[in-house]
Structures are given as structure tokens and as C-alpha cells.
Design a protein that fits this description.
mainly beta; four-stranded antiparallel β-sheet; two-stranded antiparallel ribbon
Length: 159
């Protein structure tokens, strides 16, 4: 079985439900192939698109590219009435079922960076005055920076 998802409004509802600060830049497209096995189910697919998130360094809007492969095997539990832990497979009314949306959501969250950045060379904000250093230098004197890091000021790294 193959599934295809491209519903921006559904993703936005999920972001609101779980309090995730995201915006849609380029529609998220999810493809999922379900391959039943004798003792479980193998899921493979991909999630692609772009989302807008706040940069963790400068707090400005940024774009995060999502390109994540889904490649997971879930086995049927020995006791379907009381499965231990989390599994996208559920046993109800004598049958196993799964939620493609739940599986896509789980892997979308795994695809998100721990600390989203507006760009790879983002300089962040000044720790003293809060000025965005990407737009120019702040007016803080150089001595106002943390003296514990002074040893690194003259550090040169040869590449």
C-alpha cells in the first residue's frame, strides 16, 4: 500500500495542537509505503518541504528545509491487548491498524533541527545589549563581553 499526503491545513492544525512555532514555506509532501510482514509492518517513505521557524541564535525568521527518509520496522506485540511502550501499530476490535498521519508527524518532528538557524553563518545577538550582530556591530565596548572567554579572542585555527 502506498500513501501520499500534501495537506498544509492538516500540518498547521498539528503545529497548533502541539504548540510548535512553525509556518508553511513550501508544502510538506509525505510519501509512505506500507509493506506488511508476517510478524509486523515495514514502513518506508519520505517527507519533503520547507517550514518557517525562529532562528535560535538571532530570533529572526528563518527557513528550514525538510528532507527526511522514513525507514522503520514495527513488530506486532506478543500480547496485543497490552502493548508495552509506544508503537504506531494499535490493536483494536481484533485487528491491527496504524495512523499514517501519526507516523508522518513523528518523523516530521525527528526531521526538525534541535536549534533552527536562519543561515549557517548566523552570528546571533549581542549577549550584553541584545542587538542582532548579523545586521552590524553593536555599540557595546569589547570589554563588556564575558571575561572568561578572553583566552579565545586571539585563538587562530589553521584549516
Amino acid at each position: 500500500m502506498k500513501y501520499f499526503f500534501q495537506d498544509d491545513s492538516r500540518w498547521i492544525l498539528l503545529w497548533e495542537k502541539f504548540g510548535l512555532d512553525c509556518g508553511m514555506e513550501k508544502s510538506l509532501v509525505s510519501n509512505l509505503e506500507v509493506l506488511p510482514q508476517p510478524d509486523g509492518v515495514y514502513f518506508r517513505g519520505r517527507i519533503q518541504g520547507q517550514v518557517a521557524m525562529t532562528c535560535s541564535r538571532c530570533l529572526e525568521p528563518g527557513t528550514v528545509d525538510i528532507d527526511y527518509n522514513i525507514d522503520v520496522y514495527e513488530s506486532f506485540e506478543a500480547d496485543p491487548e497490552d502493548p508495552p511502550g509506544y508503537s504506531p501499530l494499535k490493536f483494536e476490535d481484533g485487528q491491527w491498524w496504524f495512523s499514517p498521519e501519526q507516523l508522518a508527524w513523528e518523523h516530521f518532528v525527528l526531521a526538525l533541527p534541535d536549534k533552527p538557524l536562519c543561515s549557517g553563518d548566523c552570528k546571533g545577538i549581542c549577549p550584553a545589549c541584545g542587538e542582532n550582530i548579523n545586521t552590524g556591530l553593536c555599540a557595546c565596548p569589547e570589554e563588556s563581553f564575558d571575561p572568561r572567554l578572553a583566552v579565545f579572542r586571539n585563538l587562530k585555527i589553521n584549516r
